[in-house]
Amino acid sequence: MDVPAYIEANKGRFFADLKEWLAIPSISGDPEHSGDVRRSAEWLAAYLRDQGFPTVEVWETAGLPSVFAEWPAADADAPVVLVYGHHDVQPVEPLSEWDTDPFTPTEKGDRLYGRGASDDKGQIFFHALGIRAGLAASGATAPPVTIKMLVEGEEESGSVHFAELLRTRRERLACDTVVISDTTMWAADVPSMCTGMRGLTEAEITMFGADTDLHSGSFGGAVPNPLHAMTELLGALHDADGRVMLPGFYDDVVPLTDEERELFARLPFDEETWLRTAGNSGAASGEKGFTTLERVWARPTAEVNGMWGGHTGPGGKTIVPKEAHAKLSFRLVAGQEPLKVQEQIRVFVQEHTPPGLRAQVQTGGGVRPCFSPIDSVGVRAARRAMEKAFGKEVLFTREGGSGPEADLADILEAPLVFMAVGLNDDRIHAPNEKVEMPLLLKGAESAAYLWEELARALR
Amino acid sequence: MDVPAYIEANKGRFFADLKEWLAIPSISGDPEHSGDVRRSAEWLAAYLRDQGFPTVEVWETAGLPSVFAEWPAADADAPVVLVYGHHDVQPVEPLSEWDTDPFTPTEKGDRLYGRGASDDKGQIFFHALGIRAGLAASGATAPPVTIKMLVEGEEESGSVHFAELLRTRRERLACDTVVISDTTMWAADVPSMCTGMRGLTEAEITMFGADTDLHSGSFGGAVPNPLHAMTELLGALHDADGRVMLPGFYDDVVPLTDEERELFARLPFDEETWLRTAGNSGAASGEKGFTTLERVWARPTAEVNGMWGGHTGPGGKTIVPKEAHAKLSFRLVAGQEPLKVQEQIRVFVQEHTPPGLRAQVQTGGGVRPCFSPIDSVGVRAARRAMEKAFGKEVLFTREGGSGPEADLADILEAPLVFMAVGLNDDRIHAPNEKVEMPLLLKGAESAAYLWEELARALR
């Protein structure tokens, strides 16, 4: 029995099991559901044991538990792959906007509705089916690579204890490649793989002037105004071409390759539609020389998130305000280090603080970017696996934000491969979350092929 | 009996009368004291009648009353001079910081303490003594110019009904020159005259982007950020030399003459001391090529008074905010028109609104600047009068802000002359307001000479 045939024969059971798991409201952000998150972990652990994993453990953290499972290859020298996903889910409010109960998984045509159907229970679930399909097709009793799974319980509440868990369990988690199944494809008929996520660092800048607000009639025009200095500083943050002017900001940026740009360009992207999703933004704009997708996926940015100072109430008040404040965030791409960028921020602010004012910079929120080059061994293997399953060319995307993926790459010192079949219209984090059931089966098929591909590629 | 002798002989009575008037708490900003403001007007009217003014009237407004008095010259063709001051006073809070009761006028050495002693009862009061001293010295029964007095009752609460009063009573107030007695001299031993006050216009700018705040991971760097546009707009409001970049902003500015700059420069000005009064500002700064005094007195400015947008609460929030706001005020100098500057603001904002954003500008608060050239007939006459009274050279100052003076000049179509003897350390608007009694007598002496000088100069 080949992989597709096994999956076809077992899909009924697969979805029945998934629905049982989806019925558990494992909302990690709501303390009232902590028990449900634990129940979800126990359910998954039992399920993976039942699927044949020789080792399955529930790993406690200072918060909510992760599930760890391991199925060793027959060959002790075979590559080791760690699959990452999460079993906790987002809150469901506003409940009134759901057409079906979020924890009563409901099929409508090819779609399965329910919280977690796409993000991320459905996507982690297809791996078990994939492994069994691979074994059925090969007739082996163990997969061609050692498969470890780590299914987190706090991803939707900020992965607060995840890095600590990775450090503590570093030896048990040791692997050659990490496979992330928590992203999306471009479209149901445009299979694609994510190859990177932007990192982040944040800064709050305060510009101090006089001890008090000053009367602008008596002092205006003769003492420095902190709001002027702040607007001049922030106004100088980008040049006319939209490039970020922090000193050295682009020095370490891994540039997009011509091949990746060409592959991005082949994605069927409609800018008008995208602008509507961007709160009806009036125009695309940003760094000159890059497309909208390149800008949000693969270029670093500086964004003023908030700013305030002086009189902000009704009416006028003719003052020179005593201070000005701004909150900034920087999206970082492959090659950039949050700590290095934080230092660039401090230098930039210092260079733009005029005589007579004092500036203060508080930085934080360092998340490193993650990146999988499209010509890396793992990405190429995963692409072959997906192309075999989908029967068509697989393109590439990236994501503009990031979660705990960089910690996996950094702490486990392993390259990342993103393989997932969610769609952007799955309404994750929103009412009426759904997953396309045929795509989950394609995910299982891709996963089945992936182990063979990785076994060959990594050996 | 010459002018000084008359003043010396009558000073006891002068201060006794002034104290009686100062005891009336004519706080125009406090509705509970409206009756006191009326009582103050009636008191002053009775006093001026007693001093010999043939015509004295209390003029009602929609708010609190002004006092009008007229003493015609014997010669029907003589010039007409209108003296402006106000009989209302500032509130006295915090009362606990007063060393003496604010409405129990108290002499300590050469100083007379009490609310209104300097601003403005004391200064308007010296005119009556000045007129009588002039008559005593000349032996005439009428002054050499027709003297009109207009003593407002709402100056400390915004002169809300003053322009209307001027328009209604325009014919009665017709004059060749307005003498303002509501400013200060540089120092007790540095007599000076104010020659101008800056005007004002205000603007509120709003920059609109997307319909909602956007996630900066998904959209940052690819749609316009209203806070970026606002900081770039405001950052471009001044050039590197501190000049205001509104198109045409300086076109109509009456430049400082070399003589006025030279006279400003002779004022004993200590920048370190001034910076301490400026809330311990760290440095003087502003338009290149001008001194601090020139900047606050005689150069137009643009000041960002307040700004806000996006996330301003604790912690970070990685958004592209949907809008940004700023409040600005512009100090205007001789030659500039508020309405014209408001149009320049709109043009500047339009030129700095990037594609995809929408800007809105609300303007208001037009106060025209007022200005008395130092070589004008009235200023030269008043300078001669003060120099005769003080026995030394009189220098020139200006004021950075403005009150109802521009309305007087505009509506009555008459040049302004500022003659006053208050000091910057009189603590007007603050606890323990005082006036230097010898300076009030010098004011009376200056006023006595002024009518002769103006009669000669304006004839």
From TrEMBL, chains A, B:
GO biological process, one term: proteolysis
Highest taxon above the source species: Bacteria
InterPro entries on file: Cyt/Met_Dipeptidase, Peptidase_M20, Peptidase_M20_dimer
Gene3D superfamilies: 3.30.70.360, Zn peptidases
GO molecular function: metal ion binding; peptidase activity
Segments forming domain Peptidase M20 dimerisation: 196-355
Family matches, as Pfam families: M20_dimer, Peptidase_M20
Keywords from the named record: Hydrolase, Metal-binding, Protease
NCBIfam families reported for this sequence: PRK07907.1, PRK08201.1, PRK09104.1
Protein name: Dipeptidase
Species in which this protein is naturally found: Actinomadura barringtoniae
